Amino acid sequence: MPDRLNFLYRLAPSIRSGIAGLLAGIGFNFREFLRQKSHIVWLLALLIGSFVSWAAIIFREIISLVQLPWLGTATERVVSAAATLPWYMIVAGPTIGGLLVGLLLQYIQPMQRTFSVADVIEARVKGGRGLPFWPGISSALITALSLGSGASAGREGPVVHLGATIGASVGRLFHLPDSAHRILLACGVASAVSASFNAPIAGVLFAHEVILGHYAMSAISPIAIAAVTGTVFSRLWFGDVAAFVIPGHQITSYWEFPAFALLGLISALVAILFQFALIGTDWVARNISMPVWLRPVIGGFAVGLIALVFPDVLGVGYETTDAALKDQLPLAMLFALLFAKTAATAITLASRFGGGIFSPSLYLGAMTGGAFGLIAASVFPELASSEGLYAILGMGAVAAAVLGAPFSTTMIVFELTGGYTLSIALLLTVSIATGLTQAVHGKSYFHWLLGLRGYFVNDGIHRFLGETVKVKDFMDPPPANEEDCIFRPGQDGSYLHDTDSLESALKSFDSCGEALLPVVSTKDATRIVGQARHVKALNHFNSELIKANEEEHH
Question: Looking at the whole model, is its pTM more than 0.85?
Fold first, then answer.
């Protein structure tokens, strides 16, 4: 007994030291939690999730109200309603809607366009800022008018922008670091996706994969809170049902996996051609000079003409997608709708109607998979699974390839269809389609849009910083002596402009070998407005890289 007491006595300092170290570690972690205002972020995530879910509900109801006067239905059965209308109503709906959209763009909407997921990504890289509230609300209303009048586009992208706008606006009310602003923006996105699709897991993954671009531990909890909140309110309003109610499907044979791989390749081809169609049509529209208000009118008229033959192109297209999943469309119709929907969506977006590309991507994927399934069944009837199974796989493959979001898209398809048993086949088709599309385009459709604005986000944070950080962000004040602020072009040697990018500044330092260069105003070439130091430019670049790396791994 004395030996045991003696042993415990000798062990007591180590125990006390261990407990002290543990408490110190807990105290440090908790102080960091408070310093980064994570407790505020969690509470705001709950608030944002609630606001965004109701905004998404209202957005969908406005679409229904807009389509009610001309289609006679507030449901998503647009094709069935259009079949009972005279031809002139089919053309008049998108055309008159285009006129109203055009007038709103011309006289109300900033930048004379609606906003999308690309704008959210741009705001994220700017520190969670850059999404003004009222322009975001007006963009959502114009998009609801567009989709309600038959524009061939999706509603999910605009809802993502609406959710991000609300999240960013709530964040601006508090003095939070940039990392917190980005998380709150992603909370709005997660709630929007969750409420729109009834898919909370997909909402969390989409916010991380597409918007944040990383899976930081500090972001998972608040984003999940917002996603769950959005789902709860959406289910209270619309009910706990999947977007597509499909019969049971299962893989008939493991010998089908070569067919699944081939479907991934074909889905990649469809996704590549769809992006080319979007890019090409947009390029043509940009090079045609006409009043802004007239563009949606012409686009709406063109969509109406296509809808005379294929009313399935009108609106979001969930009814036709559902029909493909239920094996209700013949092979010829599946092929025809592939081309018709691609053309209608490209015209819609190039004409500046509001809308997204997620629903059209699901639509095209369902048509691709359905057609592939029918052909496979005719060649190998004893092995091929149903057309509906291939339609599900095609949905995920095309959408993931276009959006550049394989993980979240896979989960969205799971939660939309309840098809979790298809996971192994879906992962194969999605991975092949995404990889091949990246090999051709090198970027998603969203990143292509950002590239047009000079933001090359997919090239890495170093490229983004090199392009977006300007000399005025790190330059020192000009000389105190007024005479020293006069610059003589052609006589005083090398110089920088205050609007030059960090990348071009570093190249100038390397080429001239100087450690200090005068900074000249772009408005007055003879006026020195600052002094740029090579070391300071490098330090600014390195500190931003470190900050970004810490945020991604915290």
Answer: no
